[in-house]
Amino acid sequence: MSNTFREYLKKIGSGVHTGRDLTRNESADAMKLMLLAEATPAQIGAFLMVHRIKRPTPEELAGMLDTYAELGPKLDIDHLEFDYPVTVLGTPYDGRSRTAPVTTLTALILATVGVPVVLHGGEAMPTKYGVPLVNIWQGLGVDFAKLSLEESQKMLEKTGLTFVYLPNHFPEAQQLVPYRDQIGKRPPLATLELMWSPCSSSQVHIVSGFVHPPTETLFRDTLKLRNFHHFTTVKGLEGSCDLPQSRTAIIGINQPSNNPEWQRLHLHPQDYDLSGKDVPLESTEKLLEQMQQVLQGKDNPLMPLAIYNGGFYLWRCGVCADLKTGFDEAKTLLMSGKVRKKLQSILE
Question: Where would I find the Glycosyl transferase family 3 N-terminal domain in this sequence (predicted)?
Fold first, then answer.
């Protein structure tokens, strides 16, 4: 048992009247004690559940991310020369269960035009046990789960797209996954994962999906504490960074500058003739069939969603001057087969 961790538990678990938040350094230390398994299972479960109830502060989340940055895998991007900043797409690790995800297609579209993309996650995970990104990539023929971290680094350098796979690349974090099922709720780890950048530099573009408005405020405050000033927040499908077609997309944009500027964007899909019902996730097999059709330039219910998301991110990442141009470019890239050829080059 860790007596130090016990003191952290006492501090945050004493109730609304006497409980106190951890400092950033204390939170970083608590995260380290959990990752290194120096805290006992009882202590770890209690810590995660207390934080679920009280909600972590930006300082606490920043501390946890400090430890992820210290102990976790780091892709070396400092020496890489790309025309655009690396974009890290943050998607809930417990996957999707109701709506069809297009994050994979978005990543391929961006990589096709030279925007480097980093994804991260694991296998099907509590509490949703939805379809994880790694399974979708496997269905398209790319098995990121087989790559070492060095091979993932080479994949980024060669293709401009890669995946950090939790079970192989960050086993210390992977061993905390069973607690999600045992406590029956998403722990604070699920929030910090949406902001985590497994890269060697803070000079990246982080995209974080969310469901509840208070989470967006946590993102903003936490990322700024960690000196990340280039980020996008998206009230997306099932908390992902996929824009919905059935409603106005609520997006936050923070631009890197000497005085980082926060902007609010309400994106109406009907303004670009891209509105419609959100595409349901009928099965993984059906999703992969639809994705292959989109990559072949064939129209199906998934195509408008892929164009909508691809076009938005082409604009947001600086490839296109305006949204209309972004949507037109995304459609052209898909219909011309260029995105399919990008996938083929990754498979080689």
Answer: 6-71
Burial class of residue 95 (count of CB atoms within 10 Å of its CB; 0-12, 13-18, 19+): buried
Q: Which residues on adjacent β-strands are paired with residue 162?
A: 118
H-assigned helices in the chain: 3-12, 24-35, 41-54, 58-71, 103-112, 133-139, 149-159, 166-169, 171-174, 178-183, 188-193, 213-225, 284-295, 302-316, 323-335, 338-347
CA–CA gap between residue 140 and residue 119 (Å, rounded): 15
Which of 71, 98, 126 terminates a domain? The answer is 71
The backbone torsions φ and ψ at residue 251, rounded to the nearest 5 degrees and listed phi first, read -130, 140
pLDDT in tens, 292-333: 999 999 999 999 999 999 999 999 999 999 999 999 999 999
Q: Is residue 79 part of a domain?
A: no
Q: What range defines the domain where residue 41 resides?
A: 3-71
Total domains in the chain come to 2
118 pairs with which residues across the strands? 88, 162
Task: Write the pLDDT tens digit of every residue in 99-141.
Answer: 999 999 999 999 999 999 999 999 999 999 999 999 999 999 9
Task: Please check whether residues 229 and 157 belong to one and the same domain.
Answer: yes
Which of 71, 99, 119 terminates a domain? The answer is 71
Structure-token match 């303004």, residue found: 271
> Cα separation of 23 and 25, whole Å?
5
Q: Which of 36, 33, 59 is nearest to 47 (CA)?
A: 33
Query: Any residues with CB less than 8 A from the CB of 348 and at least 6 apart, and which?
Result: none
Q: Do 178 and 296 fall within a single domain?
A: yes
Q: Are residues 304 and 171 in the same domain?
A: yes
Q: Model-level pTM?
A: 0.96
Q: Are residues 150 and 297 in the same domain?
A: yes
Instruction: Check whether residue 133 and residue 10 sit in a common domain.
Output: no
By three-state DSSP, how is residue 232 classified? strand
Pairwise CA distance, residues 27 & 200, whole Å: 21
